[in-house]
Design goal:
The chain is mainly alpha-helical. It is built from nine helices and no strands. Helix 2 runs parallel beside helix 4. The protein is globular. It comes from Pseudaquabacterium terrae.
């Protein structure tokens, strides 16, 4: 008898790994960006609201602040970078996908300590958790091309290494 079914059942029964502080900061920043994109609330209002959310105490607060404030402050510039690779105006994207793309582009541009593949993967995970059915595929494609613009040396080295 094969051990495959037992292994699959055991893997399925494993509790999910706890979310990292950075992942929590990205989720909260996305929620804040959604609030900003849909309702146009002030950054200070959004920050206060997000800090009241359950689990905020487990988030990377510095990263959250950088993402939320940075994405809002640089939205026009980040949208210009993304515009080369989206199939419509960023204002026509769903607010979730737009927010995820802003976070991904911001991390690619400013968070050099995060490898570009990790930044893309984290954005894809956000899109899977909060976006539409195939939104994560769209996010992946757009950010993969955007990474080539924002981190050409890193992307070329990774692709050359295979």
């Amino acid at each position: 008898m094969s051990d495959a079914p037992k292994t699959a059942a055991k893997a399925a029964a494993k509790p999910p790994r706890p979310k990292s502080a950075r992942r929590r900061s990205r989720e909260l920043a996305l929620q804040g960006l959604y609030e900003w994109l849909v309702g146009g609330a002030e950054v200070t209002t959004i920050e206060a609201h997000m800090r009241e959310q359950e689990g905020f105490d487990k988030a990377d607060r510095v990263h959250f602040d950088a993402l939320l404030q940075g994405c809002i402050a640089e939205a026009v510039d980040l949208d210009a970078v993304l515009a080369r690779h989206v199939d419509r105006k960023t204002t026509e994207l769903s607010p979730v996908e737009h927010g995820v793309l802003l976070i991904g582009a911001y991390e690619l541009k400013h968070c050099i300590d995060i490898p570009y593949r990790v930044a893309i993967n984290e954005a894809v995970e956000l899109a899977k958790a909060f976006g539409g059915t195939d939104g994560h595929k769209y996010v992946n494609g757009v950010l993969d091309k955007t990474a080539g613009d924002l981190r050409p040396v890193e992307v070329a080295a990774k692709r050359a290494a295979g």
